Amino acid sequence: MINWKVRLHNPAWWLGMVGIVMSPILAYLGLAYSDLTTWSSLADVFVKFISNPYLIGTVVVAVLGAIGVTVDPTTKGLSDSARAMTYVQPSERPASYMTGNAEPINTKPAEEPKEEPAKEEVNNA
Fold this sequence. Notes:
The chain is mostly helical. Helices cover 48% and strands 0% of the residues.
């Protein structure tokens, strides 16, 4: 299961979703975001969008694709981790802070220590 309550309260998620919805619409109509300088131009784009079933389908597929990539990549399958399901709001700190580490965890694997050739022990007794 995905913690939709937290994702829907995250402004970054909504900003991304607006981009996902608007990009295919503007591309199909041959417009750019800079062309939406008046409310009437925005309304015109909306009317053209609603009157075009192909464009509606394209946006639906884009949104479904976006929902598909909002899965937690650190867990198996399509659900969020158990920790993420306990959140009531987005975490403001990186996961490394949740584990008690002051610095982010280095994800680069440590180098194997080089083995030195075995030295023969000399007994001077």
